[in-house]
Specification:
The structure holds two protein chains of two kinds. Chain A is mainly alpha-helical. Chain A has helices at residues 2-11, 36-45, 49-62, 69-80, 85-90, 101-105, 117-135, 149-171, 192-207, 213-224, 230-239. In chain A, helix 4 runs antiparallel to helix 7 (117-135) and helix 4 runs parallel beside helix 8. Chain A is elongated, with a radius of gyration of 23 Å. In chain B, a hairpin with a 2-residue loop joins strand 9 (274-285) and strand 10. The chains are: A mainly alpha, B mainly beta.
Chain lengths: 240, 376
């Protein structure tokens, strides 16, 4: 009887599956259901961002005061937009020294090549959702100097996403969507509303105090030194 | 790996097997919350290969910590005098570890190679050493165990890419005493242990320069291995019913009786008292034996351990006292291993999966263990 029991135990859970995994693979050991946060972690580790988004949005709706999930959802939105968080980490993350925000961000952003303007705009909007998600946190969760790691991270993320969104916005008017190459003729599509929106995001990034704040401030100062309208100043900056 | 037959109690084997195993297995209760590793602070390679079901049979120094009541049933006065060294590494990091060995043909890999590796798969490595003397009435031993687990997450706990470091540094000494109860097939044992423990556990945001900078300070790094110390006691009992061809064992073990408190160093959670039971049957003929065991740990659910982690099961096949083969279930995954006994030199190897969380399949580690023991 005993050898039979052990053979049964062994054959029903060989390979990589765990005996306790739900649905029950073996009646001798009670199966264990993953919690919501464990399902989220599994989706994130599997790079299944679509599932992670669904799980996080539902979890935040159910428990809006569980603030540790907000930065995770923001990161998922950023990932879905094509923003390469890992590249940010593996770079020195040094964007100071007066470098343009576009130069600083270029390596981490999705290229418009092969996309329609609508598709690229959707990616910019996803970064906007990432920013909104972080901004929905209470102020104490956004303190740059906070010792709480979640607050510090959320603050860092906000600055990064603002800088990324501003840079993607500007790329819309400097890049040929078919070739992915620089194309000054795209600037003809730049409107005053677009320029105002870009400068507003840049100003927020400069004020964030995050990793790319210095680059954002430097870029904003260069644009505003033109003396014309927002649109003309931005067009001049982007055409150089 | 001797098999003794000095006690003889006629008993219906099938009935007893059914009672013992059913008692343990059907007592399984689903529990989903945080739990610590229920393995002894020092665990032998061959016992790991047998699923960690070591309450009713354990190897060498491992017996003192698995269940001190095992000592009187070793078959002779002398049980073990010797030292051991074992190396643990996860399967995915074997190639990387080779490059880190000085003098190897591929040595000299950069730190960026290592980080790249950690982003592809976790890195786990550890060592365990011991020096011990044990006889049928007790003994003394010293052990040291160090393990580091590094995992990189593109979406870390705070959303940003992070490296998660979990470390374990256990050093200690034990004094054991054990004896049989006269006229009964029962033994009792006690192991007093002095432990120095450090369990660093941290997450470093790679995109946060402030987070990374704080670990460039050597004092911050040294604080990660600032041990806490404490004294604890393990109690064990073993009912050993021996027949001419079949032996039965039923064990009861209390780990960290009344709890083990730690002081000094970094804050380490006190060890709670854990009550465990195990049952086994051994079929033997001459020097050959098949030992089938099941343990059910943390009966009182002190740590809220889920059933797949608290249930241990395994088989040890012992041939001519020189070769041992083992297989079992460890943390809900299959385990396997073997040991060769050359009298004064014992070589062992095992492969098993360990689940780091309380959730099956969420964060497993495929671990290889190699063991070298010298002694007799």
């Amino acid at each position: 009887m005993i050898p039979h029991l052990l053979v049964y135990l062994a054959t029903s859970s060989c390979g990589t599956s765990n005996l306790g995994r739900c649905p029950a693979s073996n009646p001798l050991v009670a199966c264990t259901e993953l919690t919501t946060d464990e399902k989220i972690r599994e989706a994130l580790d599997d790079q299944d961002l679509a599932s992670a988004q669904v799980l996080l949005e539902a979890a935040i709706a159910d428990e809006p005061e569980n603030y540790e999930r907000y930065p995770l959802l923001a990161a998922v939105y950023a990932g879905l937009s094509g923003f390469d968080l890992l590249a940010i980490a593996s770079s020195s993350a040094s964007s100071g020294g007066g470098a343009s925000i576009m130069d600083s961000m270029d390596a981490f952003l999705p290229t418009p090549e092969g996309l329609t303007r609508t598709e690229y705009r959707a990616k910019i909007d996803l970064l906007g959702q990432a920013i909104s998600t972080i901004e929905a946190l209470p102020a104490e969760f956004l303190a740059t100097s906070a010792t709480d790691k979640f607050a510090s991270s959320a603050s860092q993320q906000l600055g990064i996403y603002q800088a990324a969104q501003a840079s993607m916005y500007m790329k819309m008017f400097t890049t040929n969507f078919e070739t992915g190459l620089p194309d000054p003729s795209q600037l003809s599509d730049l409107t005053e509303e677009d320029a105002a929106a870009i400068l507003a995001v840049l100003a927020n990034a400069a004020a964030s105090g995050g990793t790319f704040a210095e680059a954002a401030a430097s870029t904003l100062a260069t644009i505003n030194s033109g003396g014309g309208t927002d649109r003309d100043n931005l067009a001049n900056f982007l055409s150089t | 790996m001797p098999v003794k037959t000095e006690l003889k109690y006629p008993i219906d084997s099938a009935v007893l097997a059914a009672i013992l195993l059913a008692t343990i297995l059907w007592n399984a209760t689903p529990a989903i919350c945080f739990a610590r590793d229920l393995s002894p602070v020092y665990e032998e390679t061959f016992d790991i290969a047998a699923g960690g079901a070591s309450l009713t049979r354990a190897s060498r120094y491992g017996a003192a910590l698995a269940n001190p009541a095992l000592l009187p049933f070793s078959g002779s006065f002398h049980r073990w005098l010797g030292s051991e060294f074992s190396l643990h590494i996860n399967r995915e990091s074997v190639a990387m570890a080779k490059t880190m060995v000085p003098g190897s043909s591929t040595s000299g890999s950069s730190s960026s190679d290592f980080v790249d590796h950690v982003f592809e798969s976790p890195f786990l490595a550890g060592t365990q050493t011991s020096l011990a003397y044990l006889n049928a009435y007790g003994g003394v031993g010293f052990f040291s165990k160090f393990e580091v687990d590094l995992e990189a997450q593109e979406y870390g706990p705070t959303g940003l890419p992070a490296i998660i470091l979990n470390g374990k540094s256990y050093t200690g000494g034990t004094v054991s005493a054990a004896g049989r109860i006269p006229f009964m097939p029962l033994s009792l044992g006690l192991t007093a242990k002095y432990l120095m423990i450090s369990e660093p556990n941290l997450s470093i945001d790679l995109a946060d320069p402030n987070a990374a900078a704080q670990f460039q300070d050597p004092s911050a790094l040294s604080s990660l291995v600032n041990p806490s110390s404490g004294i604890g006691y393990d109690l064990g009992a073993l009912l050993f019913i021996q027949g001419p061809k079949v032996d039965w064992r039923l064990a009861l073990k209390i780990d960290d009786a009344t709890g083990t408190s730690f002081s000094g160093g970094d804050s380490v959670e006190d060890f709670k008292q854990v009550v465990s039971t195990g049952a086994s049957v051994t079929f033997h003929r001459g020097a050959d034996a098949i030992h089938i065991a099941v343990d059910r740990r943390d009966l009182q659910n002190a740590y809220g351990t889920p059933a797949f982690k608290s249930t241990r099961a395994g088989v040890k096949v012992l041939l001519r006292s020189y070769i041992g083969i083992a297989a079992g279930y460890y943390d809900g995954y299959p385990s396997v291993g073997a040991e060769l006994d050359f009298i004064f030199l014992k070589l062992g190897a095992a492969s098993y999966r360990r689940e780091r969380t309380d959730s099956p399949g969420l964060s497993p580690r495929n671990v290889y263990v190699m063991n070298l023991a010298t002694g007799f």
